[in-house]
Amino acid sequence: QVQLVESGGGLVQAGGSLRLSCAASGSILRFKSMDWYRQAPGKQREWVAKISPGGSTVFADSVKGRFTISRDNAKNTVYLQMNSLQPEDTAVYYCFMNPGYWGQGTQVTVSS
After folding, report:
1. Phi/psi at 101 (nearest 5 deg)?
2. DSSP β-bridge partners for residue 57
3. What would the pLDDT profile of 8-61 be if each residue is shown by its tens digit?
4. Residues paired with residue 91 on neighbouring β-strands, in sequence order
5. CB-based burial of residue 40 (10 Å sphere; 0-12 exposed, 13-18 middle, 19+ buried)?
6. Residue 17 CB partners (closer than 8 Å, separation 6+)
7. CA-CA distance, 27 to 71, in Å (whole number)?
8. Using CA atoms, how far apart are residues 22 and 34, in angstroms rounded to an integer?
9. What tens digit of pLDDT does each residue of 61-107 get?
């Protein structure tokens, strides 16, 4: 059983930055693609970004150019660097590992 623990959320003003972390138990992370999702109040959970085991990245159009995703396999951790944050980025952010492991989420609130 894999456990994922997100951290790094908080309250930030529009235009600010945050870095989220997702720490995985064990050492399986290095073999896995990892995703970040987010869920805003009253909305469905949406995919944000993916990083492959080799480090290739893909982003949702809504965050492209503002967010970056990276991984440190030695620390079993994936990061989501979020820059130029906007109020519409307010959501609970979750990391995800196949075949179905989710973290508990971390709240990001962007004030205007």
Report:
1. -95, 130
2. 51
3. 999 999 999 999 999 999 888 889 999 999 999 999 999 999 999 999 999 999
4. 108
5. middle
6. 81, 82, 83, 84, 85
7. 13
8. 9
9. 999 999 999 999 999 999 999 999 999 999 999 999 999 999 999 99
